[in-house]
Write a structure and sequence with these properties.
7-stranded antiparallel β-sheet, Jelly Rolls, Immunoglobulin-like, Beta-glucanase-like, mainly beta, ConA-like_dom_sf, about 45% strand
Length: about 775
């Protein structure tokens, strides 16, 4: 039956065609398998036909088969004490058995196989072992099972763990890097398979059910425990010699709260010795309970033992377990239990057996340089040999001849040992054995490569000496000579010798040693006495084979600077003073005051016309003078004074102003009267006009609308003010026009007479008058 999420459950007792199931890859003799409703799928051999055979899902690639989840077979052996041969397994889906690309990772997982006439259920896990390049195996045995009875063999595959169960009881678990990943997580899926091989006498196995439950379906069914319980229920109803359910005895009355601690996994001191575990019961309200140990086949292994429960509801006791799969039952009565509790099954492991020496690994000596040709070498070597305590090593030539005796090597608890190995020739190698008389395990190193010590290169030969140029140098005093820092460049030299020679090739002193450093250079102070001297450097003062020379030096004398000469100071010739200080008027005459050179005369002239005005002689010892001129005309003048017998002159300009005349006072003319109509009012049925006009003048009044003459205005008052009555005018707009007789002066007056007789909007139209401007001037 194929279920959701890739799960399937094949009931071979109801299957008539094996090819309708996922198990379609069949090999071997067809007589070695059959299907029946009574026994399901039979696999085995009879008579003398021991051909290997099997029925499996097709391992066609990584994505074939199934990944993480629970795998189960329900099966029993046909014969009691039958030899090994039958198996139930998982095989890698890409049909790889041992994968050298993934050493240590499981590729074949046998959930059941036997090797000792049915006495022990064996689970074997296979992987590629890099230590010996062969099949690596992990074994787990479960004894005490009647393999002719139906049992459910299960494995729960999760990321990083494989957990194995028999009849729903956890047997053992593998975790860590050896657990493979499925295809969905970067590894390989597995296919389920059953078969028989390497049998030597008749064997047979009946498989009634094969089931795979995917991880999503495990979660949907409430976990692996629930999946196991369902499988056990189907096993109990198969009717073919099935073992009773794991949970015993039957529950009598309601199950309340007796909790029993889990015994876990315990190591026994020796195989078959069993273990004693401190157990704890939690049962609030109880005072005394009873416990007994049962086997995985639900058989009591001893009598009921009373356990006292304290006021806190807990009790402790020592429980004895003889086998893996044993569990505890705790009841409230040994005759009529109404409350009971169960522990999980214990896992008992045997003490670790002493490791067996299976392989010896020897480190590679590599390539080593000997101190001198033929000296050979000594190399620190390491042996890795788990399970060994003492091994023996010897060096062999490439012709497999021993080069010395066997030497003992102590191996520590970690399985390693170190020693010094002597090698005489390239190609020598080490052999390590577990016995010098009857070696059963041995290991070999790779061959050593010995190189000779390098030959020191010949000492470098001095081939050239270069000497720096001294150049041009100034001596401190004539004939003093100079000292110059010189540099020698001479690769491969250590000590050289230098001396100074004249231009005539005569040595000026003895040879002096010069140290040359590792870089091939050296410095020294060279003394030169003359221009043309040069330096010679040699590698020997007795038998020079290499020499070098500098260029010739040029020595310059110091420059003599004479003391400074200060010339006598000649005072500059005195410049005669010659100025006109002022020209003033004194008593009607002009007086010139100034300064000139003592003892000299000066001529004074008028520059305007060159008129000679006189000669100024000395007046005072210091040259100061004042000179009275004849009176001159009014106006601008410039006086030029010339010092006789020289180019010196002095000049001054001045003005003689005329006498000031005061003019008589100016009396302004009388103001001019204008012509103005001030107002027009109604007075007793007539119009009265008032205003102002020029005195002594008459004015004619007219109506401008029609030029109608209204009268002549005579003098009124003495100041020109007037009032004049005129005949009344008609209702309406009017303009009075007054003209000053004998002039162009006029005045107008605009008004309106209303029907009521009222004069309205009296606005003088304009007023204009002529004006007289008198201008007076004087000198």
């Amino acid at each position: 039956m194929i279920m959701s999420n890739g799960s399937f459950d094949v009931d071979f007792q109801t299957t008539s065609n094996i090819y309708s199931t996922p198990f379609t890859n069949i090999w071997g003799d067809s007589k070695q398998w059959s299907l029946s409703a009574a026994n399901g799928l039979w696999l085995g051999s009879s008579g003398t036909d021991y051909t290997p055979m099997g029925i499996m899902q097709t391992p066609s690639g990584n994505s074939a088969g199934e990944g993480y989840g629970a795998y189960s077979y329900t099966a029993r052996y046909e014969y009691a004490n039958q030899p090994g041969g039958d198996y139930l397994l998982l095989w890698r889906a890409d049909d790889t058995w041992l994968d050298s690309a993934k050493p240590g990772v499981l590729t074949e997982m046998d959930m059941l196989e036997t090797w000792d006439n049915s006495a022990t259920e064996q689970s074997t896990l296979h992987y590629y072992n890099t230590a010996n390049d062969v099949n690596g195996q992990i074994f787990h045995s479960t004894s005490g099972l009647d393999l002719t009875k139906l049992h459910v063999y299960s494995m729960d595959w999760e990321s990083g763990s494989l957990t194995f169960y028999i009849d729903g009881v956890k047997i053992y678990q593998v975790t860590g890097s050896s657990v493979p990943a499925d295809t969905a997580h970067g590894g390989n899926n597995q296919v389920m398979g059953m078969g028989a091989e390497t049998e030597t006498s008749p064997v047979g196995m009946y498989v009634t059910e094969a089931q795979y439950t995917s991880t999503p379906d495990i979660a949907a069914q409430g976990g692996v425990t629930s999946v196991m319980a369902a499988q056990m229920a189907r096993e109990s109803g198969s009717g073919t010699g099935a073992a009773p359910p794991v949970v015993v005895p039957p529950v009598i009355g309601p199950l309340t709260s007796i909790a029993v601690s889990a015994p876990g996994t315990v190591v026994e001191t020796s195989p078959g010795a069993g273990v004693s575990v401190a157990e704890t019961i939690t049962a609030p309200g109880a005072t005394t309970l009873y416990e007994a140990t049962f086997t995985s086949s639900n058989v009591a292994e001893g009598n009921w033992q009373a356990v006292a429960v304290n006021a806190a509801g807990t009790g402790s006791f020592e429980a004895a377990f003889a086998h893996t799969g044993d569990y505890l039952v705790v009841v409230n009565s040994t005759s009529n239990a109404t409350v009971q509790g169960y522990s999980s099954a214990i896992t008992i492991t045997d003490t670790a057996a002493a490791p067996v020496l299976t392989s010896i690994a020897v480190s590679a000596p590599g390539t080593v340089m000997e101190a001198s040709p033929g000296a050979g070498v000594s190399v620190a070597e390491t042996i890795t040999a788990p399970g060994a305590t003492t091994l023996y090593e010897a060096t062999f030539t490439s012709s497999n001849a021993a080069e010395g005796n066997w030497q003992a090597v102590a191996i520590n608890a970690a399985g390693t040992g170190s020693f010094k190995a002597g090698f005489e020739h390239s190609g020598d190698y080490l052999v390590v054995v577990n016995s010098t008389s009857n070696a059963t395990v041995q290991g070999y190193s790779s061959a050593v490569t010995i190189t000779d010590a390098p030959v020191a290169p010949p000492a470098p030969v001095l081939t050239s000496i270069a000497v720096s140029a001294p150049g041009t140098v100034k001596e401190t005093a004539a004939g003093a000579g100079v000292t110059v820092t010189e540099t020698v460049t001479a690769p491969n030299a250590t000590t050289l010798y230098e001396a100074t020679f004249t231009a005539a090739n005569v040595a000026e002193g003895n040879w002096q040693a010069v140290a040359v450093n590792a870089a091939g250079t050296g410095s020294f102070q060279a003394a030169f006495a003359h221009t043309g001297d040069y330096v010679v450097v040699v590698n020997s003062t007795t038998n020079a084979t290499v020499k070098g020379s500098s260029s010739a030096i040029t020595i310059t004398d110091p420059v003599v600077t004479p003391p400074p000469v200060t010339p006598p100071v000649t005072p500059p010739a005195a410049t005669p003073s010659f100025t006109i200080a002022s020209i003033t008027e004194v008593a009607g005459h002009l007086v010139v005051i100034g300064d000139k050179e003592s003892g000299s005369a000066a001529t004074i002239r008028e520059t305007i016309d060159g008129n000679y005005l006189g000669v100024i002689e000395d007046h005072a010892p210091d040259g100061k003078f004042n000179f009275t001129l004849a009176d001159t005309t009014k106006g601008s003048h410039t006086m030029l004074l010339s010092l006789d017998g020289s180019a010196l002159s002095a000049k001054m300009s001045f003005v003689i102003a005329p006498a000031v005349v005061t003019p008589p006072p100016v009396v302004p003319p009388a103001p001019v009267k204008g012509l103005v109509i001030s107002a027009l009012t109604e007075d007793a049925g007539r119009l009265e006009m008032t205003g102002d006009k020029e005195i002594g003048k008459a004015a004619t009044l007219r109506e401008t609308m029609d030029g109608h003459y209204l009268g002549t205005l005579r003098d009124g008052m003495a100041d020109g003010a007037f009032n004049m009555h005129i005949a009344d005018v008609a209702v309406g707009a009017h303009v009075l026009y007054l003209t000053l007789d004998g002039s162009s002066t006029t005045a107008t007056y605009d008004f309106t007479k209303l029907a009521s007789g009222t004069i309205q909007h009296i606005v003088p139209a304009s007023t204009s008058a002529s004006s007289l401007i008198a201008v007076a001037s004087h000198s």
